[in-house]
Amino acid sequence: STAISVPYASLLVYRTRSMEERGTMGIVRAGFGYLVGMIIAIGLIPISNVLGGDQAAWIKLGAIFGVIAAVCLFVLFKKTKEVTNVTETGEQAEEEQLPFGQALSYLFKNKYWVALFILCLFSNINFGIAGASGAYYAKWVLGDDNLVGLMGAVGLIPSLGGFLILGPMIKKFGQTKTMQISLGLGVIAFIVWLFKPDSLIMPLTCGLFTTFATIPVMALTGPMTAMTVDYNDYKFGHKMTGMSNSAQSFGGKVSGGLGASIIGWCLAIGGYSAAATTQSASAIYAIYAFTIIIPMITTIAMFLLVRYLSPLEKEYPSILEEIQKRDRELAASND
């Protein structure tokens, strides 16, 4: 999947130079992917049962999804036109010839890419925690593990609604401001949740805002990465598109695993026992820690990082103009 996702994400840079179009593509990519993933998750077991419910059924199901994916990728390849430079300057060849160590050095000298990289780390930690924390919270804090389904169903409201209102928000406020607003609401919701962490009403109400806080980050990471790629070109004369996106992808996988690990570490520190019928106060506080406190801290960190990134969005039109001016001058000198 990495071999597909990295060049797919890199297409944002070469598909269009428009910030608005990149933002729209990010929303459609994340929103459609989320919707399809949700449909597959809901229908996976019923479909496999229709196909026989045995190992052969799962093989058939995997083959069907594989064919669909292959067809979609082929259509993407045939229909996508990349935006090239004003002239054929051999930019791609230069990027490929850049030594790995030098490219990595340039990348970490790009302050905006570093800030976005850390932002994505925190975001994926939150995703990793959210994926497993609900079961512990519902069973040991709320006293009924069946509530996981209810909390998940309610969580669909801000997820689907968030993607619908994201476009108008970006058009009105811009990408970084939209992320600041959503993350700020998430921080406030986490703080309110702390006042009554053992009440069902809190995850059902505050959870609406904490879930919504993740949507703009999910959708706009790609467009923001594209901006940092052009900033690479502006500062160093090399886009390093593949390196920028692959490093982000690697960091996302590591931090997603870290998020899941944090749950285990907290439970171990709190003295959690899976065999116990009741948990100690320290184990309950550990569940509070990875369900509310740690995501709140990472959300605050993301809010601050987005503030740091906001000048890039403001400077981007002039950065792009400078790159195009330089390309024209280079073309004229070559002629």
The percentage of residues in β strands lies in under 5%
- Which range best describes the helical content: under 10%, 10-25%, 25-40%, 40-55%, 55-70% or over 70%? over 70%
- Low-confidence regions: 86-95
> What is the terminal separation in angstroms?
43 Å
User: What class, by secondary structure content?
Assistant: mainly alpha
Rg result:
22 Å
- What series of H and E elements makes up the topology? HHHHHHHHHHHH
- Main beta sheet strand tally, sense and closure: none
Average pLDDT confidence is 84
Shape: globular
Count the DSSP helices: 12
How many β-strand stretches? 0
Task: Compile the SSE list and pairings.
Elements lengths: L1 H14 L3 H32 L4 H25 L11 H7 L2 H10 L1 H31 L5 H27 L1 H20 L6 H12 L1 H23 L4 H30 L10 H54 L1
Helix pairs in contact: 1-10, 1-11, 2-7, 2-10, 6-10, 6-11, 6-12, 7-8, 7-9, 8-9, 8-10, 8-12, 10-12, 11-12
